[in-house]
């Protein structure tokens, strides 16, 4: 196998492993979506402590300080919509704003979460069940105007019968990023990354961040380039978790109704207030400082995106 082929394969493998729990692409089969969602909900390694009313109230009060969304984005419209039928009709007119990724997210997520109220277990803490019920009702309400036939893969294909999604700005930029392959054309890479940063779309940021940062270590492994430093593959998990938080700063409301958190709450009774709460709560007991490291990466990544710093994500010219 040539070095170029090894590099391409390594990037592909890294992305499949690193982004499986985060990236619900248009091309994922629904069976894979369900499996990933359920598996991801079982990440919790610490003993679940019943929430008291005081704890719940304190977490709700802190939510507003965490969510800092741009209310003009398609991502914000999607993540706050209580009528996804209306959202889809509007987003179909927003290809230049990157509406189609969120249309397909809406359909796939509703297929899984529009199931009705969760059953009550007499042994379950009543506060936890009330949160499960609250999240489930939110999803039933937002999905109720979508027909069953629209929620499977055939329904999604019918929606795209004229290939409209291929004209979507986000899908076009995603395709452009992946045409770079081994990234040998650094000038072209930098131009593409500059467009990616300017778009600052939550779906594009989360789904492509690790791919753009990946570099060939020369040792048959992939490392991460960020802000003038090449990080070993052992740091991949923390940077991956940081990218999971990044959309929250660019128009995606990452509260308890976020798809990943909704699945964890409704199906597994692991209820979190937002993505930050989830990342903090699911760190292994033997790595108590992970959250501080992840949050630091998150802050630095957000700042680099805001200043559209290509060099933070791509090795500058002259750096081998």
Write up this protein:
It is a single chain. The chain has 320 residues and is mostly helical. 58% of the residues lie in helices and 3% in strands. The protein has 17 helices and 3 strands. The chain has helices at residues 3-19, 30-41, 53-66, 74-80, 84-91, 100-113, 126-143, 148-151, 153-159, 169-178, 186-199, 202-213, 236-245, 259-268, 275-281, 290-306, 310-313, and strands spanning 214-216, 222-226, 229-231. The chain has a 3-stranded antiparallel sheet with strand order 1-2-3. A hairpin with a 5-residue loop joins strand 1 (214-216) and strand 2 (222-226). Helix 5 runs antiparallel to helix 6. The longest helix has 18 residues, at 126-143. The radius of gyration is 20 Å and the shape is globular. The model is unreliable at 1-69 (pLDDT under 50).
Outline of this structure?
With 320 residues, the chain is mainly alpha-helical.
Question: What tags apply to this protein structure?
Answer:
about 325 residues, mainly alpha, 3-stranded antiparallel beta sheet, 17 helices, disordered N terminus
Q: What topology emerges from the helices and strands here?
A:
Elements: H1 3-19, H2 30-41, H3 53-66, H4 74-80, H5 84-91, H6 100-113, H7 126-143, H8 148-151, H9 153-159, H10 169-178, H11 186-199, H12 202-213, E1 214-216, E2 222-226, E3 229-231, H13 236-245, H14 259-268, H15 275-281, H16 290-306, H17 310-313
Helix pairs in contact: 2-14, 5-6, 7-14, 10-11, 10-12, 12-13, 13-16
């Amino acid at each position: 196998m040539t070095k170029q082929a090894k590099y391409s394969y390594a990037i592909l493998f890294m992305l499949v492993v690193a982004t499986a729990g985060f990236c619900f692409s248009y091309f994922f089969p629904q069976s894979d979506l369900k499996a990933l969602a359920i598996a991801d909900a079982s990440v919790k390694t610490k003993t679940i402590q019943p929430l008291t009313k005081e704890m719940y109230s304190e977490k709700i009060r802190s939510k507003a300080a965490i969510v800092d969304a741009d209310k003009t984005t398609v991502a914000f419209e999607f993540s706050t919509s209580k009528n996804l039928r209306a959202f889809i009709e509007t987003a179909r007119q927003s290809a230049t704003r990157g509406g189609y990724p969120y249309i397909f997210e809406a359909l796939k997520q509703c297929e899984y979460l529009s199931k009705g109220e969760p059953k009550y277990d007499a042994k379950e803490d009543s506060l936890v069940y009330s949160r499960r019920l609250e999240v489930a009702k939110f999803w039933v309400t937002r999905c109720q105007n979508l027909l069953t036939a629209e929620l499977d893969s055939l329904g999604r294909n019918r929606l795209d019968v004229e290939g409209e999604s291929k004209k979507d700005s986000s899908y076009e930029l995603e395709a452009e990023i992946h045409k770079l392959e081994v990234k040998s054309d650094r000038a072209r890479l930098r131009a593409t990354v500059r467009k990616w940063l300017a778009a600052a779309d939550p779906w594009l940021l989360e789904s492509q961040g690790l791919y753009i940062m990946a570099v060939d270590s020369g040792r048959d492994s992939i490392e991460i380039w960020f802000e003038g430093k090449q990080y070993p593959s052992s740091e991949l998990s923390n940077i991956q978790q940081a990218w999971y938080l990044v959309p929250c700063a660019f128009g995606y409301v990452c509260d308890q109704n976020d798809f990943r958190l909704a699945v964890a709450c409704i199906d597994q009774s692991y209820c979190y207030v937002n993505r930050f709460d989830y990342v903090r709560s699911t760190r292994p007991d033997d790595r108590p400082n992970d959250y501080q490291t992840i949050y630091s990466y998150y802050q630095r990544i957000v700042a680099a995106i805001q200043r559209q710093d290509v060099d933070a994500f791509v090795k500058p010219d002259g750096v081998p």
